[in-house]
């Protein structure tokens, strides 16, 4: 638990259609076992004892979310998201700050259904060591190559101290909202919440997370996610 307990509010950006992976519906609504990807993701967040509320940023024309059983959960709220992931996170942060500016935002990808309670707890507890905020990440294990624009190897990159950024990522709501808003106004490319904080001069902490916390981006990932979830 945090030394000074505050509300933990999970934010799930699910507004963009993203890659449909050859399907007719947004990828977060593709089936993974008995329910869709997003439903699994929400189950992990809604059932965690230290998460007080879950805010999902949806596309204004989303016709699928209301059909999920999780959409009626007492801990869940929705907001209208934006065109890009960062815009959706900012919309959710605007809402959260209006009701609880002292909260912590735990931002998690809609298409990462394999996140475990153990990793979520580890990230939340890391705030004691990293009061500026932190992210789940995994050390790079493979040999890394840098290429030119023609697909030829230029050189091998030293993998020491390199990490794969994962989610969730946790930051104080008001601080993250301020830096994310400023970065978007400056047209800075924002790939995750940590990149907005880094741009503002903040050095988020790294929390070693499980490698099976994959993001579903390719049809093959569905089978891999199903395997990981069955083993968990």
Automatic annotation (TrEMBL):
<comment type="function">
    <text>Catalyzes the formation of 4-diphosphocytidyl-2-C-methyl-D-erythritol from CTP and 2-C-methyl-D-erythritol 4-phosphate (MEP).</text>
</comment>
<keyword id="KW-0808">Transferase</keyword>
<dbReference type="Pfam" id="PF01128">
    <property type="entry name" value="IspD"/>
</dbReference>
<protein>
    <recommendedName>
        <fullName>2-C-methyl-D-erythritol 4-phosphate cytidylyltransferase</fullName>
        <ecNumber>2.7.7.60</ecNumber>
    </recommendedName>
</protein>
<dbReference type="GO" id="GO:0050518">
    <property type="term" value="F:2-C-methyl-D-erythritol 4-phosphate cytidylyltransferase activity"/>
</dbReference>
<keyword id="KW-0414">Isoprene biosynthesis</keyword>
<feature type="site" description="Transition state stabilizer">
    <location>
        <position position="27"/>
    </location>
</feature>
<dbReference type="InterPro" id="IPR050088">
    <property type="entry name" value="IspD/TarI_cytidylyltransf_bact"/>
</dbReference>
<feature type="site" description="Positions MEP for the nucleophilic attack">
    <location>
        <position position="215"/>
    </location>
</feature>
<comment type="pathway">
    <text>Isoprenoid biosynthesis; isopentenyl diphosphate biosynthesis via DXP pathway; isopentenyl diphosphate from 1-deoxy-D-xylulose 5-phosphate: step 2/6.</text>
</comment>
<dbReference type="InterPro" id="IPR029044">
    <property type="entry name" value="Nucleotide-diphossugar_trans"/>
</dbReference>
<comment type="similarity">
    <text>Belongs to the IspD/TarI cytidylyltransferase family. IspD subfamily.</text>
</comment>
<dbReference type="GO" id="GO:0019288">
    <property type="term" value="P:isopentenyl diphosphate biosynthetic process, methylerythritol 4-phosphate pathway"/>
</dbReference>
<dbReference type="InterPro" id="IPR034683">
    <property type="entry name" value="IspD/TarI"/>
</dbReference>
<dbReference type="InterPro" id="IPR001228">
    <property type="entry name" value="IspD"/>
</dbReference>
<feature type="site" description="Transition state stabilizer">
    <location>
        <position position="20"/>
    </location>
</feature>
<keyword id="KW-0548">Nucleotidyltransferase</keyword>
<feature type="site" description="Positions MEP for the nucleophilic attack">
    <location>
        <position position="159"/>
    </location>
</feature>
């Amino acid at each position: 638990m945090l030394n000074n307990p505050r509300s933990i509010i999970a934010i799930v950006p699910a507004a963009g259609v993203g890659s449909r992976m050859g399907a007719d519906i947004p990828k977060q609504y593709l089936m993974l076992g008995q329910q869709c990807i997003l439903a699994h993701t929400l189950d992990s967040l809604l059932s965690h004892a230290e998460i007080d509320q879950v805010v999902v940023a949806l596309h204004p024309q989303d016709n699928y979310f209301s059909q999920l059983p999780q959409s009626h959960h007492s801990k869940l709220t929705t907001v209208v998201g934006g065109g890009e992931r960062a815009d959706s996170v900012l919309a959710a942060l605007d809402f959260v700050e209006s009701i609880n500016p002292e909260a912590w935002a735990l931002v998690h990808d809609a298409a990462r259904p394999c996140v475990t309670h153990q990793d979520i707890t580890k990230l939340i507890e890391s705030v004691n060591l990293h009061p500026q905020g932190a992210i789940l990440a995994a050390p790079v294990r493979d040999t890394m190559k840098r290429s030119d624009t023609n697909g030829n190897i230029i050189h091998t990159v030293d993998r020491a101290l390199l990490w794969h950024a994962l989610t969730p990522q946790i930051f104080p709501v008001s601080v993250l909202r301020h830096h994310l808003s400023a970065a978007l106004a400056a047209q800075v490319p924002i790939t995750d919440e940590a990149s907005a904080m880094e741009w503002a001069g903040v050095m988020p902490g790294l929390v070693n997370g499980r490698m099976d916390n994959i993001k579903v981006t390719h049809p093959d990932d569905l089978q891999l996610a199903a395997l990981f979830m069955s083993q968990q």
